[in-house]
Design goal:
The protein is an alpha/beta fold and about 160 residues long. It has a single domain, classed as Uracil-DNA Glycosylase, subunit E (3-Layer(aba) Sandwich), CATH 3.40.470. About 30% of the residues lie in helices and about 20% in strands. The protein contains six helices and seven strands; from the N terminus they run ββαααβββαβαβα. A four-stranded parallel beta sheet has the order 3-2-6-7. α5 links the parallel β6 and β7.
Length: about 160
C-alpha cells in the first residue's frame, strides 16, 4: 500500500522539528499526527509541555506550534503495508531544504524512533548544520521501553 505524508504542522518561528517516519494507517484515516490511541506521543507532550492529550487535535497542534515545535515526517511517500516502520519500502523523502528555508529558526531536529533517524540519514543531506537527536519511538510497536523512560528521554526537548 502506498502512503503519503501530511503537510508539516508548523509555525514559521519553529525552533524544533520532530520527525516521524510516515503516518500510521490510523493517522491517515483521521488525518492527524500520532492518532493511534496507544501511541505515546501526545501523552509525552502532556507531561513535558502541559498540553492536554485529550484536547481537540487542532488545539494540541496549535499549542505545540506556540511552544516552537513543528511536526513532520521523513518520508513524503513510501510503500508500506500496514503501519509498521520496518515495512517501509521505496521511500521518497520530504523536501527538508525547502522546509528549513521557510523555518530558519529551527535549531534542533528530533527523530521519533530509530527508523525515522535511519531514513533521514540515508536520504537527506542538509546544507545547514543543525544538531539532530534520536529519541525512542512513541509507537505502540515499541512497547519494550516503559512510558516513564520515554518521558525521561523525550524531556530533553522540553521548555527550559
Amino acid at each position: 500500500m502506498n502512503s503519503s505524508s501530511f503537510a508539516p504542522a508548523s509555525a514559521p518561528d519553529a525552533k524544533l522539528l520532530v520527525l516521524g517516519t510516515l503516518p500510521s494507517q490510523e493517522s491517515l484515516r483521521r488525518r492527524e499526527y500520532y492518532a493511534h490511541s496507544r501511541n505515546a506521543f501526545w501523552r509525552i507532550v502532556e507531561v513535558i509541555f502541559g498540553i492536554p492529550a485529550g484536547a481537540p487535535y487542532a488545539e494540541r497542534v496549535r499549542l505545540l506550534n506556540e511552544a516552537g515545535i513543528a511536526l513532520w515526517d521523513v518520508c513524503a511517500a513510501a510503500h508500506r503495508p500496514g503501519s509498521l516502520d520496518s515495512a517501509i519500502r521505496s521511500e521518497t523523502p520530504n523536501d527538508f531544504a525547502r522546509f528549513l528555508e521557510a523555518h530558519p529558526r529551527v535549531r534542533l531536529i528530533a527523530f521519533n524512533g530509530a527508523k525515522a533517524a535511519d531514513l533521514f540519514r540515508k536520504h537527506v543531506a542538509l546544507a545547514v548544520d543543525i544538531p539532530c537527536v534520536d529519541l525512542p519511538s512513541t509507537s505502540p510497536a515499541h512497547a519494550a521501553m516503559p512510558f516513564s523512560e520515554k518521558v525521561k528521554r523525550w524531556s530533553i526537548i522540553g521548555p527550559g
